[in-house]
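In keeping with the milestone schedule agreed at the kick-off meeting, the structural modelling team has produced records for the first pair of proteins. Each record is given below as a sequence line and a structure-token line. The laboratory manager (R.T.) confirmed that both were archived under the project's standard naming scheme.
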Amino acid sequence: MKIFTHEEFEPSPKTLKFILEFAHTYRTMEYNGHRMAYCLN
């Protein structure tokens, strides 16, 4: 079994940019006890 170190597991800059854009665009809210996702764009 291969053991991954922190340096090997670091995502690419392109992946990080996508994750940040997604995180800033989508939010969640609780409505009647259920969590719902919605888009700000």
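The second protein of the pair:
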Amino acid sequence: MKIGLFIPCLVYPEVGVATYKLLKHLGLDVDYPLDQTCCGQPMANAGFEKQAIPLAEKFEDKFKGYDYVVAPSVSCTAFVKLNYPRLLKGHHECTTSNKIMDVVEFLHDVVKVEKRLGTFPHKVSLHNSCHGVRELGLSSPSEENIPKFNKIKDLLELVDGIQVVEPERSDECCGFGGMFSIEETAISAQMGKDKVERHIQTGAEYVTGPDCSCLMHMAGVAKKQGLNIEFKHVVNILAAGL
């Protein structure tokens, strides 16, 4: 099983390093293809889909030799998975749509990790990003009458010393939404304030989740309000102390 690691634009460098470190720790054959670029999501979301096609073609060529493409970003993973077949139709063979996975999904469903991972002796509030919940199935959507599950929480429970909690309205949007945060700034900011407040009400020291963009948005809200809570990508916690 050969894995190509994709590190999207909005992923903090330390998250990319932690993802690579964690995959190697689990004994996986992982490679980081050089010269990889944006997947094209910002252009497409802004209404300029034609500008995303060359990036999608480059992405396909860069990752065509791997069994899986793994990324620590639910939004970019979902974009490739759901939009590449349509964008590339008539332009380029689409292969990565069927083999790209968010790192949480990959570790939970493919690797099926069961051994203990890192050490993180803190109380952590779990943030469920919209793309992860409703497009990648990382957790159960509250609007659907199905048994509750959460793949992020399952993995976090393999970390020593951690206490995982969830806020009220656990899968409600934080307000980032990519272009939404630019076009509807006031609404985005208020949604962020509401979400951060619910995380703080859990008594957690940290908020974690699978997407840097959501964490970045909430961290900005917390900083502006002078709130004492930190934000850390789930991979940084899974790899802590390894």
